[in-house]
Write the structure tokens for this entry.
Amino acid sequence: MPEHQTAAILSIGDELTLGQKLDTNSQWLSRRLMDLGVQPVEHATVDDDLERISGAITRLCEVVDLVIVTGGLGPTSDDLTRAAVARALGVDLVEDPRALRMIEAWYRSRGRDMPPANRVQAFRPASARFLVNRNGTAPGLSAMATGATIICLPGPPSEMRPMFERWQSRRLRPPTDRIVRTRVLQTFGAGESNIAGMLGSLMDRDRDPLIGTTASTGVVSIRIRSEKASSTQQADKDIDREIAHLRDILGPLIYSESDTPLPEAILQRLISTGQSLATVESCTGGLLGQMLTAVSGASDAYAGGWVTYSNAMKQTQVGVDPQIIERFGAVSRECAEQLASGGLLRSEADHCLSITGIAGPGGGSEAKPVGTVWIGLASADASPDVRRFLFKGSRDQIRLWAANTAMGMLRQRLDGIEGELLGEAGR
Amino acid sequence: MPEHQTAAILSIGDELTLGQKLDTNSQWLSRRLMDLGVQPVEHATVDDDLERISGAITRLCEVVDLVIVTGGLGPTSDDLTRAAVARALGVDLVEDPRALRMIEAWYRSRGRDMPPANRVQAFRPASARFLVNRNGTAPGLSAMATGATIICLPGPPSEMRPMFERWQSRRLRPPTDRIVRTRVLQTFGAGESNIAGMLGSLMDRDRDPLIGTTASTGVVSIRIRSEKASSTQQADKDIDREIAHLRDILGPLIYSESDTPLPEAILQRLISTGQSLATVESCTGGLLGQMLTAVSGASDAYAGGWVTYSNAMKQTQVGVDPQIIERFGAVSRECAEQLASGGLLRSEADHCLSITGIAGPGGGSEAKPVGTVWIGLASADASPDVRRFLFKGSRDQIRLWAANTAMGMLRQRLDGIEGELLGEAGR
């Protein structure tokens, strides 16, 4: 069996080529392939056109070892991936009785009969195998073309991702002569270009391990990738050496020496010390709570909180003094502090984070421009920490910066770190 | 001069193919092209490899009338778009004195000399023209290949977008004989395959207007695209006729006859009737509030709410009877009803939605498996509506289904519709 040295990702759908939907699958698959030692060299997206899909599959099979197709596996007549793969392989479509039973069982487990339309999802190119989908009705496909492996996965990321992981753990054949090992550190509190400045020549493109950064609303991830080591032991040793280096330089900015997202890192610290957290959100409207509770097991530390979107809710539910809002406004140090301390009192949690700001696009003024956000942290055993930030970007970006920065403040307190959280805040 | 009937977008860069950066340019350009009457049929992304870039340009020039290339115009050695276009056109690179003067002026206006490295940005394929960049150092390019126009724009959206607009206003030639018009309907309450079954032959691929569906955790969008009408009037008339058809068939499932997302549709209805909404969330942990407040202007109807993640918060903050939780559990009809009515009372809103369930992966039991969610809707002027759902999928999916379904229930009440909300719930 040939190795999978290079890969291409083909995304299918009018909704993508017409710009109605943003393709995020290609990025996710590329990252995973890189982690696994396979090099993605091309992404392609074509509309729901049988000839264009099969043409793209045929062409990509000639240039790479692995073609990953996403989308077009649904039950409707514009779902053409099955037929396009059959055409590219020059074989017929056949009904797979096992796939049919799985789809029927999927509906039965929901107490329903399979709609007749879904029967088409049990068809596969005669020479292909089907891939089990535990989270939806569309089975995937895998097939061997001349010189390349083709796998087809459904478009929804929640179905695509676990199916890819299952397939790669059994069938992916990364090059054996090239050892690729990757580790990730997570930082919060300094911007990407600040960190690049601190790392200097450590980020040179001809080094091995290679060090790279990616930034996402305040979180700067640092990837360390070894590609030229002669053994995995050597690669791990090389990476360990780089990480010791990075630890020296970045120190308290590092909040995780693995791929742990910020909410999970916060919750781990709270749970391991038996502490609890509440939240009071105004401009983020529940985003912080949503990010925390996206982590399974959050209930061991997160009590809950309030979305005090209206001024009335701030006053009646968390006890903000109406005169404070009248005098200083809802977006003020005073209001942020009362939201945090009021939430702490009423929730009886050990810590309470509050966020109040102007996410825009409307509502800004010269004194309080869009992006102005006050974040408060009240704790049972420490005096309140209230800070003002000015984030730049869209409404979504400002809200995400605010939620991340609130978690960054709590993380500093939990780790006993003093420091600014500015970096390229609002970059 | 031939018309630009079809277009392809080629994005250049290792950071894209390796998944370090998400490509948003292709979506933006596709939307603009559609608005302008040009049909994008393919997106492609290749790494910083001269041969792959020039190969992609040559290939795309054979299939479409307009090839838009983004990225690879910077000053470093991995910026290869200029050389790749020259190779695809079979011409040499020449230095453009006007482009050089513009780059020098750009630096001068910032009080600096042009770094020597940037001189390379003044080179262009001999047969190409350069496009002015007012927001950065990289000039764009435009060139005629056999059968296609090629334009090259820098990668940063803040430079790319104004350059595209400037170019299209002068040089784009949308088809005068082929009119493309698109509209979208949004539905909630039935699954994609149910809707496909209801629409039957309306979804045939050879019809014009062409009707297609896409599904996203309960929301099924229906696109109607006219491509063969003889005038925009005719196209709009054809689409109107299809929409009347769809209205007859899908009736109350349609919640919007435009591209409006569900939260915005709910808020529009509330605002236009002067009503307000509160939320009490357990398993969704703030997701519903976050989705509502992602809409700018939400404060005109959304008061806020509670994230009653712990049982204590349910009791102390919203007034759930401790005996109810003891007897029926927090995931029960009785608890969902008390959460909704307690939230209604305390917020003084006109409606209050509550969500309590088991998002998993842990916490399920035989009687209440993972995915069991009770949703309550209390209103000032109607009796409570409490329903049980069983959603399948990951923790994220179950939570998103729950939040969408809660909004679907409120939308039914606001529109005076009775009906199940099952569809492929949990698809």
Summary: Chain A has 14 helices and 17 strands. Residues 212 and 223 of chain A are 5 Å apart (CA to CA).
